[in-house]
Amino acid sequence: MKRLVVGSVLSTAALLLLAATPAQAQRSAVHEGYWISFGFGGGTAFGDDAFDGDSKFGGAGFLRMGGSPSQQLLIGGELIGWGTEQDNVRIGRGALMFTAMYYPSPKGGFYLKGGAGFAGRSAEWDIRVGDLTATVKEDQGGIGLGAGLGMDIQLGRNFFLTPALDFVYTGTEGDGASLLLFTVGATWH
After folding, report:
1. For the chain, does the N or the C end have fewer beta carbons within 10 angstroms?
2. Are 109 and 29 in contact (CB under 8 A)?
3. Residue 76: what pLDDT?
4. Which tens digits make up the pLDDT trace of 45-104?
């Protein structure tokens, strides 16, 4: 099942990027000044002890913003996260990173991304004893590292649809996990 999910995510990402390529040739991306992007999607986590080493699918989202020092380089901050629920345990992983996005073609929308910063993991579950219910929450922090690729597909003068594929490592206090996320966002340059 997990191979099917990962295969579907990768296939969808590849098709969106390939379909967008002809449209990119008809326009000229402008990366100037400040930019902001946010989006939602899904993905899977690998290596989380809460899942006994199995990967699990969940929802994902991101918020990015920053500036454009050049036409081919965008820098800024990114908050990216993933979450799911299994066996009444709610798990979330995410990272707050400094991010750089590089556009190989000055006029194209395809980009490569890398980042580093802080990561966090949250697990929450309810314990019931008789008529009493208590919620237990465990939080951990650590290092976050990310890499990704995506495509800005122009829909308006400064507005873009941005499908992206991200890999994020969240190393939290002896319990590291990797996230593979596919999201579709909205970007303003």
Report:
1. N
2. yes
3. 97
4. 887 655 555 668 999 999 999 999 998 999 999 999 999 988 788 889 999 999 999 999
- Please say whether the beta carbons of 58 and 84 come within 8 A: yes
Q: What share of the chain is helix, strand, coil (3-state, %, to 5)?
A: 15, 65, 20
Sign of CA dihedral 76, 115, 161, 69: positive
Closest CA to 182 of 44, 89, 38: 44
| DSSP 8-state assignment for residue 26 | T
Length of the chain: 189
For residues 65 and 34, the answer to whether their CB atoms sit within 8 Å is yes
Q: 23-30 — which CB contacts under 8 Å span 24+ positions?
A: 23/153, 23/154, 24/108, 24/109, 24/110, 24/151, 24/153, 24/154, 27/107, 27/154, 28/107, 29/103, 29/107, 29/108, 29/109, 29/152, 29/154, 29/160, 29/189, 30/71, 30/158, 30/189
How many whole angstroms separate alpha carbon 79 and alpha carbon 110? Answer: 21
> Considering the entire predicted model, what is its pTM?
0.77
The H or E element containing residue 18 is helix 2-24
